[in-house]
Amino acid sequence: MYRLNVYDATQKRLKIIFDYFDYVYVSFSGGKDSGVLLNLCIEYIRKYAPGRKLGVFHIDYEIQYQQTTEYVKRTLSKNQDILEVFHCCVPFKVTTCTSMFQRYWRPWESSHQELWARDMPQNCLTQDDFEFYTEELWDYDFQKLFIKWLRKKTKSRHICCLVGIRTQESFNRWRSIHSDKNYKRLLNYKWTHKTGWHEYNAYPIFDWNTSDIWVANGYFNWDYNHLYDLYYQAGTPLARQRVASPFISEAISTLAIYKTIDPYTWAKMIGRVNGVGCAGLYGNSSVMGWRKITCPSGFSWKHYMEFLLETLPEEIRNNYIEKLNVSIKFWREKGGCLSEKTIEKLRKAGIAITVEETSVYHTNKKTVRMEYLDTIDIPEFREIPSYKRMCICIMKNDHTCKYMGFSQNKRDRQIRENAINKYKKWYEK
Fold this sequence. Notes:
Layout: H1 6-20, E1 23-27, H2 32-48, E2 54-59, H3 66-77, E3 83-88, E4 94-95, E5 104-105, H4 139-154, E6 159-163, H5 171-178, E7 192-196, E8 199-202, H6 210-220, H7 227-233, H8 257-261, H9 263-270, H10 276-282, H11 301-310, H12 314-334, E9 336-338, H13 340-348, E10 353-356, E11 366-370, H14 387-395, H15 410-422
Parallel strand pairs: 1-2, 1-6, 2-3, 6-8
Antiparallel strand pairs: 4-5, 7-8, 9-11, 10-11
Helix pairs in contact: 11-14
């Protein structure tokens, strides 16, 4: 039986998308994946859907490599006959892990215009263009509400946002594609997720590998972000070549590369976001939890965590304490999922655990209830609740405790739900 290559498979997916939806747009970050996806869509429209328009949704985070700015400008200036560009410069909340004092920063904040890393692009959309904007919105909330705003603006019956994520990149991205627990799908296609009333996300290149991305760029002679050339020359591993916000947890270890690749932007960053200078110096070291860390003499990891918490402002400290208490209660009462192999290692180490034979989770792993440990020296360390892991979160300025497996807390989820519910009237008609 003939097996489609990833290019031909994507062509079939694009046909499904453009046949079903009356408006389609691409979420374009300026990275290699969204760039390839955008080129695939442009090529498809030219060949098979003449007369169609393609939306391009670009969130401009103000601080980015100059090469990214230049690439985005080149790309959005081309194919103007079929592209409808939505270049958004909005001061929503954006997570930062550079500072122990701040959980977020705001790009394009009018009150700090004199500190902007660069001038606001011409013909961009600002907060005044979006009726739903409030100061409580995070960037991911804005993305959720944008599709509803665009559906109303374009008077579309069915609308789809194409996202260039690939399952190869991380387990979280694999889970976002393959999970069937929280999402409905279009005609049961696993690479689609229903996000609202006649609103969908689709991931046409979910099964592409990194090599497929670069082969496509070379074979079709597509333009790309030449930041990747500089990354390559600097010896940066593929997994750490990031175009996204430089202040998220995953990017802190390579923040200092800005000093070499784009010293002008680095100079602007120093005075723009709290803690950038320190994170640039120590972001890839044990000081910020990115290398092997040791507990100070005379401390247990629990006592060290308590010491670290006392150094923090009250709001930040309470945020960590809230998440810690939730985690302790979860492992004590509900339990997490661990493999038989990990369970056996805990038993050999003399750890008191309760293993449930049945599980409410859709997994072959077993539910394990246990108390928080100080630490444990096993390869599955990141799966086990411990005060050492909490210390690492604090040292990383990981305010969301992503390292601990946390998502949004109840307060943040409520704010998000309130914002979305406020504008339901737009899309439920």
